[in-house]
Design goal:
9-stranded mixed sheet; 217 residues
Length: 217
């Protein structure tokens, strides 16, 4: 039995033992295995799959046909665009079972994984990082980094609001987001964020989420 605020489409399968938080929607033909942990205020699109020992944080959005396999953990406010792929075995063989050697993949709060992108096992996707559509992430991504290509390479920085930051890859400087008043501070090749008065990546548990609206262009 799940919280009355949880929406589960009749065609979806949520196995006994799976955990689903309040205000989460699970759409057509999706499947959550018994050991899956899904937090609050998530939207799981059509044909999504959450495996045993997989974790989806709070406020996440999973596009159609996204599979979060065992040992993959998503932080809060992670966006997985349609058909992006996680892998969890580095050298798979059909003749060899490697279920006992799955590698953990961690996706930081506020990260975006673009459509048709691939994330290999054992990496850490940094807080707020952005993996471009069709890219292949073969190594860990820094916080707030914009990663593009196959294999993905850093091409810039992206804010929590989702806009490119006008700072070089290496150096020093500051940039203020005009939408959130966040300040991003570059020191060497690392970028840190000082949230504005209302931190859009601060999750408040137990409440229905109201997402920040972007103005039409």
């Amino acid at each position: 039995m799940h919280d009355a605020t949880v929406l589960i489409h009749p065609s979806a399968f949520v196995d006994p033992g799976a955990t689903v938080g309040a205000y989460t929607s699970i759409w057509h033909f999706s499947h959550l295995e018994a050991g899956a942990v899904v937090g609050e205020n998530n939207n799981l699109g059509q044909n999504t799959y959450i495996g045993n020992n997989a974790v989806v944080g709070n406020g996440c959005r999973l596009g159609n046909s996204v599979s979060v396999f065992s040992h993959v953990e998503l932080g809060d406010f992670v966006f997985c665009a349609p058909f992006m792929v996680f892998t969890h075995i580095a050298f798979p063989r059909a003749a060899v079972s490697r279920r006992d050697v799955f590698e953990k993949t961690l996706v930081g709060t506020g990260a975006t994984l673009g459509a048709n992108s691939t994330v290999v096992p054992g990496v850490t996707v940094g807080t707020g990082s952005f993996l471009g559509g069709g890219s292949v992430l073969t190594r860990s991504a820094k916080d707030w980094s914009l990663m593009i290509g196959a294999p993905a390479r850093q091409r810039g920085w992206v804010s929590a609001f989702g806009e490119k930051i006008d700072l070089p890859l290496i150096g020093s400087g500051e940039w203020r987001c005009p939408h959130t008043d966040d300040v991003y501070i570059l020191q060497g090749d690392l970028l840190s964020r000082r949230p504005g008065p209302k931190d859009i990546l601060r999750y408040i548990p137990g409440m229905k989420l109201e997402r920040m609206q972007a103005a039409a262009r």
